Amino acid sequence: MLELKNMSLKWTSPVEDEFIKNLSLEVKKGKILTIFGVSGVGKSSLINIISGTFEDNLSYKGDIILNNKRLNEIPVENRKIGLLLQEGVLFPHLTVEQNLLFGMNKKLKHKEKSFLINNHLQESNMDGFQKRYPNTLSGGQKARIACLRAILSEPDALLLDEPFSSLDADQRDSFRSFVIKQVQDRNIPCILVTHDESDKAISNYKPLDLNQFNR
Fold first, then answer.
1. What DSSP letter does each residue of 165-206 carry, written as one string?
2. Residues 71, 1: contact at Cβ < 8 Å?
3. pLDDT tens digit sequence for 92-113
4. 177: Cβ–Cβ under 8 A, 6 or more apart, which residues?
5. pLDDT for 45-59, tens place per residue?
6. Triad 83, 89, 90: Cα angle to 5°
7. Which residue stretches of the chain have pLDDT < 70?
8. Which of 2, 8, 67, 215 is the most exposed place for a label (fewest CB within 10 A)?
9. What confidence score (pLDDT) does residue 163 get?
10. End-to-end CA distance of the chain
11. Strand arrangement of the beta sheet that strand 208-209 belongs to
12. Residues 6+ positions from 36 with CB-CB distance below 8 Å
């Protein structure tokens, strides 16, 4: 389970500005919580705080707890949190297979990694794409590969920062279903931040309006 307890966020420069106050939530394994709000309300900043990728001029109070382990002082590379951003950035000079290898458990043998990659691509209706480069993929295909890359890193939780917003309507619906299946299959908690009202439908909890905790 992923928990936030009494979280408050503030910018420390150029001026001190607290913009989220006293936010608490919990997301159980295999479940998705949608957090929404207008642009600038702090959605991406909250995701960055949880993942540990936040800027030096952003600070917070409160506790981040994953599977009963407090993450506050744990380095980003050891938090075991998958992060999928809006653009689903892939390395353009690497093939699909090479992109998916990035971040996989280094203890796995090459054959084990290849098996996992081939199996996940087959399940994603992308079998045969191993040697393709990102510039040959559609927006929906790039999004799936970016999501698979996060999943193959074996995270204990998944954070999604508006991953559907750059897709057209058909791709968006298909990718939503794909993400839901990945979360359920991996049995991990997931937080989706969005400003798209239609994303609320995939939440297993009452969608959280971040505006209520803003300033």
1. TTS-HHHHHHHHHHHHHHHHHHT--EEEEES-GGGGGG-SSP
2. no
3. 999 999 999 988 988 899 999 9
4. none
5. 999 999 999 989 999
6. 110
7. 86-88, 215
8. 215
9. 84
10. 27
11. 81-84, 157-161, 190-194, 32-36, 208-209
12. 43, 193, 194, 195, 196, 197, 199, 200, 207, 208, 209, 210
Report residue 118 as tokens.
């081939």
Q: Under a CB-based contact definition with an 8 Å cutoff, are residues 38 and 211 in contact? A: yes
Tens-digit pLDDT profile for residues 79-88 = 999 998 866 6
DSSP 3-state helix, strand, coil percentages of the chain (rounded to 5)?
Answer: 35, 25, 40
Q: Which amino acid is located at 56 in the chain?
A: D
Measure the CA–CA gap between 68 and 8, rounded to whole angstroms: 20
Query: Given this model, what pLDDT does residue 38 score?
Result: 86
Helices (H), the chain: 43-51, 96-101, 110-123, 139-152, 169-186
Report which residue type is found at 198.
Answer: S
87 vs 16: CA distance, rounded Å: 30
Residue 10, CA atoms < 13 Å, CB-side half-sphere? 13
